[in-house]
Amino acid sequence: MNYENIIVASENGIGQITINRPSKLNALNVATIKELHDGFDALNKNPEVRAIIVTGEGEKAFVAGADIAEFANFSVEEGAQLAQQGQELLFDFVENLETPVIAAVNGFALGGGLELAMACHFRVASDNAKMGLPEVSLGVIPGYGGTQRLPQLIGKGRAMEMIMTAGMITAEDAYRAGLVNHVVPQAELIDFTKSIAVRIMKNSPVAIGKAIKAINANFKEGVDGYQTEIRNFGKCFGTADFKEGTTAFLEKRKASF
Prior knowledge:
Largest sheet: 6 strands, mixed
CATH superfamily of the largest domain: 2-enoyl-CoA Hydratase, Chain A, domain 1
Strand content: 15-25%
Helix content: 40-55%
Oligomer: single chain
């Protein structure tokens, strides 16, 4: 598939999506959101891809927000539709992928950019990264899950302050708050993130997919996360990965998934 706004590649079991709008600091517009959905979907359906990394082109930005010019004149109904379609097409979609998705946050991750990073299963940041949800400075609120995922990751009080001040935090502040898992020099960002992906790929992809479902269930209204865990735990027993993993353990060898 040909893309205008992203670059999709895969090598040695690791898929990589690079948002490629450097002249716009990789800002998200409707077309880019659609392409990102298609790119993630294609990699998730590729049986050879066991982990996905998403990053931004260049050294300045992961994604520096949404493309404001695209929705500046929207009506109430159009604004609500924009948020709903974006969440369903990309942000919720990424969160619920069975293939692990790691955000490699290089530079600015603001507004929709931070919301995309938070939709990923976890985040690694370059030491020059800056993150924030500045939407209230534009007279709107975060619309792609920012008001929901940020409190889940860093707590209600910190999230309230970040959103209400519209300020940015540094990569180190994000690490201390639990927003990112690691901070590394920018030149090492992709290689470091790939090294985590390699460690993930040594384990059962089936079990990882079910673990993602169980973890996410804890944050869904009206869903009993414990029951989701029990169901998915049980399902693992019927898989070839479970047979291989337990057999390898008993035979004192490394499992081959």
